[in-house]
Amino acid sequence: MTTQEVDAPAPVRTNRQTKTSRAESSELAEARIPTLLGLKQLMNGPIRTMLIKGLAGTGKTTVALEILKAAGKGNGAYISSRVPQELLETHIPAMKETLENQEFLDVRLEDATSALEFVMRLTDPKKVKTVVFDSWDALAKEFDSKERLRAEKTLIAVSNNSGAQLVFVSEEPGATTIDYLVDGILEMSTVEEQDRAVREFTIHKLRGTKIPQRKYLFTLMDGRFTFFEPYATPNYSEIRKFTPVADIDEAYSLGSPALDRLLGGMVPGSTLTVEYDEDVPYFALRAIELPPIINFLAMGRSAILLPLPGANTGLTSSVLTRAVGEGTPSDRLHILDVLRSSDLETTSMTKHATPNEIHEVVTNETTRLRKKSVDQAMLHVNSIAALENLFASDLDSLLEVTSQEIITLQQSRDAHILFLPANSPIRSRILSMSSSHARLSVRDGAVVMFGVKPYTGIYALQHLDDPILPSLTQLV
What is the pLDDT of residues 57-109, one digit of tens each? Predict the structure, then answer.
């Protein structure tokens, strides 16, 4: 077993909130909408007409209003066949200003012909750039099939001739005549991910526009539309020196305000198990693994890390050193390399080390490191997958030693984090011994995280502000 040591500075008793503000989140969402939905093409290019469809409550109106907002103040019109402006502003307060800055036509008591005449008046002198019909099917049902097709063809021709963009909102299931006429189709839906409801949209068509991915997760958090691209690896070259996050009442902080809000920190003596699917990117797991270690070191405490399989311990040491700083030489972190290999020079353990022998080494290291901790507090971060790889033929002994370790840590009131693959043969036994349980999975390329014990909502994990700390955006 080899060990690597990381220098850490003296404790700093300040607290830095590294979460992205709501304003920054809104700016980010607005920046991403044109990239995905082709709004640049919708405003200036081949996408002149868009159909947004889906069942009630899936987010169609919010997305349509985002497109209307992109048209600019005074450049759009909203034709409502369902709710008055005041009620719509109450339902979606984040879009109140957008609705007030655009033309609003309440046609609930009007016929479809009046709505068409209104569009003609607005688009003939090119007074507006974007017109939203919400909902189009409520208007179209007033026509018979031939009249409906004629009206839709007329609107498409108006769009082509005037340059105006038309957005049709529809709750009609299946394809209708408008599906074949519009340039783009976006379908909103609610799907289940690990027994939690999440929002997803599918791009069925965007004429003249490349579609690199057809399905994306999105949220309506704060009444705004924000979608999530596939998880992006953080840029560790942008690492900044970490400022410690104080303990939370009687719990140790996880080193991340976002993680603390989700899981409530780490109660001394407890075991947090982080379960993950096999397709979760390694760097997403590091976003959970590294912050508590960095925070313990920055607080003057000690930690032991048994890395995930395939981890580059040199890179891990480099990241930790850059985040914590090199102000004061220290011996408060040990990265334990317990890979079984014929190359015995890579490990101080014998080739046939047993779980008890590994446990003995960890116990001795814990005793030594505890003396160096400012308050004798220790953090243990272990990979179950690494231990399973090492002791695949002796899982019963591994479970016995793990149980002993959990009991010992409860008595010493240390913090304990286990990383557990979802397909682990000892999954149920490990979870039964865990005080807390969080889970990570992948949907549409985005990494999602939620608490199982305690039960929490579901969140998208990104790196918006800091390559070390995760940003968690709730999917609502």
Answer: 999 999 999 889 888 898 899 999 989 999 999 999 999 999 999 999 888 87
- pLDDT tens digit string along 139-192? 888 889 999 999 999 999 988 888 888 999 999 888 899 999 999 999 999 999
- Return the bridge partners of 473, or none: 460
Does the structure show a pLDDT above 80 at 242? yes
Q: In CATH, what class is 236-474? A: alpha beta
d(CA 275, CA 408): 22
Tens of pLDDT, residue by residue over 420-458, are: 999 999 999 999 999 999 999 999 999 999 999 999 999
446-453 vs 458-462, strand pairing mode: antiparallel
Angle at 250 between CA 16 and CA 247, to 5 degrees: 15
Torsion-angle region of residue 232: left (phi > 0), alpha (psi -120 to 50) or beta?
beta
Domains 22-228 and 236-474 share a fold: yes
**What b-and-e string marks burial along 13-23, b requiring 16 or more CB atoms within 10 Å of the CB?**
eeeeebbbeee
Q: Where are the domains of the chain?
A: 22-228, 236-474
The per-residue pLDDT for range 299-313, each reduced to its tens digit, is 999 999 999 988 888
Rg of the chain over Cα atoms, rounded to whole angstroms, equals: 28
Nearest to 123 by CA among 162, 93, 154, 85: 162
CATH class of this structure's domain 22-228 = alpha beta
Q: What is the pTM (predicted TM-score) of this model?
A: 0.85
Contact 131, 107 (CB under 8 A): no
Q: Among 225, 227, 226, 223, which Cα is nearest to 89's?
A: 223
Omega before 470 cis (within 30°)?
no
Q: Please state, in angstroms and as integers, the Cα–Cα distance from residue 240 to each residue in 185, 236, 286, 469, following that order.
A: 43, 9, 16, 11
Residue 134's beta-bridge partner residues?
80, 169
- List, as one string, the DSSP characters of 375-438: TS-EEEEEEHHHHHHHSTT-HHHHHHHHHHHHHHHHHHT-EEEEEEETT-TTHHHHHHT-SEEE
Which residue has 């958090």 as its token pair?
221
Nearest to 256 by CA among 421, 406, 405, 459: 459
Nearest to 139 by CA among 167, 112, 179: 112
Q: Residue 277: exposed, middle, or buried by beta-carbon count in 10 A (0-12, 13-18, 19+)?
A: middle
